[in-house]
Structure formats: C-alpha cells, structure tokens
C-alpha cells in the first residue's frame, strides 16, 4: 500500500497536480471522512503553495521544508505529517462528481 504523500506527489489531472476540491478521503465503503478531507484540502490549498512536490522525496522532507519556509505552527505541521503518512488502500475516480477519492482504512 501507499500513503497520502505518495498519492499527492504522483497523481495528476490533465498533467497538473490535483486540486484540493478534487480530493475526498473515504473509508473502504466509500463513506467520506470530513476531518481527513479537510486536512488534505488545507495542505493542498495552503501549505503546498510554498513548495514544489516534484523537488521533494519524502513526507518528512516536505514537513522540514514547510517548517523552514513557512510560518506554520508546529501543531499544524504535526497534523500535516500525520495525514501525509496515512496509509491508502486505493483510489476511486468519480468523474460524475469531479472527485478523486483516496481510500483509507478508518
């Protein structure tokens, strides 16, 4: 299995990084997880403005770069580290909804 960092780094839509509005985190039955989805949206829409994922090899590198180059507090970075390490069990593309569902086991 993979993690959310790997998904964000490697999945693109029309050769562009995924947008926060396209991502929904769900459980294996397809039920959305609002808390995890909101964290991913915050990460994509706010933190990733400061870095280029193509230049970053690991989630730890990303957190270190955000720590060095943003005013984000440590508790926010800790939450980002947790969500980036969340194990993924698959992706579901839902074009009728305009969504990419990242499937986690919660």
Summarize the structure.
With 106 residues, the chain is an alpha+beta fold.
Mean pLDDT: 91
What general outline do the C-alpha atoms trace? globular
Ends: how far apart?
15 Å
**Number of separate structural domains:** 1
Note the beta-strand portion.
15-25%
- Read across the widest sheet, the strand sequence of neighbours is 1-5-6-4
Radius of gyration: 13 Å
Question: Count the strands?
Answer: 6
The tally of helices reads 4
**Given the helix and strand composition, which structural class is it?**
alpha+beta
Oligomer: single chain
What percentage of residues falls in helices of 4 or more residues? 25-40%
Main beta sheet, described? Answer: 4 strands, mixed
Q: What sequence of helices (H) and strands (E) makes up the elements?
A: EHEEEHHHEE
pLDDT < 50 runs, ≥5 residues: none
């Amino acid at each position: 299995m993979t993690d959310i960092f790997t998904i964000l780094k490697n999945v693109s839509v029309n050769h562009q990084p995924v947008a926060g509005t396209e991502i929904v985190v769900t459980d294996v039955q397809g039920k959305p997880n609002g808390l995890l989805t909101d964290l991913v949206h915050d990460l994509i829409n706010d933190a990733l403005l400061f870095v280029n994922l193509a230049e970053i090899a690991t989630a730890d590198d990303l957190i270190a770069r955000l720590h060095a180059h943003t005013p984000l507090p440590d508790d926010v970075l800790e939450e980002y580290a947790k969500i980036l390490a969340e194990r993924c069990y698959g992706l579901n593309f839902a074009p009728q909804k305009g969504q990419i569902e990242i499937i986690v086991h919660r």
